[in-house]
Amino acid sequence: MSEFLHRLPEFIGNHPILSMAFFGVLIAVIASEAGRWFRGYKEVTPAELTRLINGENALVVDVSPPADFEKGHVPTAKNVAMAQFDPEHKDLNKVKDKPVVVICRSGQTSAGAATRLVKAGFQRVYTLGGGTAAWTGADLPLAKGKK
Fold first, then answer.
1. Mind listing the pLDDT tens digit for each residue in 1-55?
2. Of 88, 54, 94, 92, which is closest to residue 74 (Cα–Cα)?
3. Identified catalytic residue from 77, 102, 103, 104
4. What is the largest CA-CA distance in the chain?
5. CB within 8 Å of 103: residues ≥ 6 apart
6. CA 135, CA 62: separation in Å to the nearest integer?
7. 42 by DSSP, 3-state: which?
8. Residues 79, 126: contact at Cβ < 8 Å?
9. Do the beta carbons of residue 122 and residue 96 sit within 8 Å?
10. Is 1 helix (H, G, I), strand (E, B) or coil?
11. pLDDT of residue 147
């Protein structure tokens, strides 16, 4: 280890572009991980979502467009289009102490809704990593239609 540390400045001097690229990637990874820790919500797997629904009666909110929701959604999910999503709605305020899981088709849009819930004071906010696609990839059933 000692020899490595003595030769490191020489390596950096001989390979500045490679060294800058390494430190750039290292900083990006650290920033990404730090962001995950401090965002206020947790990403869950389909198995963890099933446990939250069955064991803790979690509220599942699907922010997919209504047409996509009707094609297939997680059973028990309620559809609220992202344009109408309001964390301050009186019905949502009644469940601030319950776990709330936000889902979309791919897992990208739900992050914005989860952030809004955290800012509104919800303590137990989750997103389904990979969205409905991850749910179907785990061979779990989908409900079809409006309800």
1. 788 888 989 999 999 999 999 999 999 999 988 877 778 899 999 999 999 999 9
2. 54
3. 104
4. 66
5. 60, 61, 62, 63, 64, 73, 74, 77, 110, 127, 128, 131, 132, 135
6. 13
7. strand
8. no
9. yes
10. coil
11. 60
Angstrom distance (rounded) from CA 35 to CA 43: 13
Which residue intervals of the chain are DSSP H helices?
Answer: 2-14, 16-38, 46-56, 66-71, 90-93, 109-119, 131-137
| Locus of tokens 């936000």 | 102
Examine the residue annotation and report whether 104 is marked as an active-site residue of this protein.
yes
| Contact (Cβ atoms closer than 8 angstroms) between residue 139 and residue 46 | no
CA 14 to chain centre: 42
**What DSSP element (H or E) covers 65?**
none
Q: Which residues pair with residue 87 across a beta bridge?
A: none
- The letter for the amino acid at 98 is K
pLDDT of residue 100: 93
| CB neighbour list of residue 32: distance below 8 Å, 6 or more residues apart | none
Q: Which residue has the tokens 């305020």?
A: 93
Q: What are phi and psi of 143, to 5 degrees?
A: -95, 145
State how far the alpha carbon of 20 is from the alpha carbons of 10, 23, 33, 43, 90, in Å.
14, 5, 20, 32, 51
Q: What is the 3-state secondary structure (H, E, C) of 92-122?
A: HHCCCCCCEEEECCCCCHHHHHHHHHHHCCC
Q: Which residues 6+ apart lie within 8 Å of 119 measured at CB?
A: 40, 87
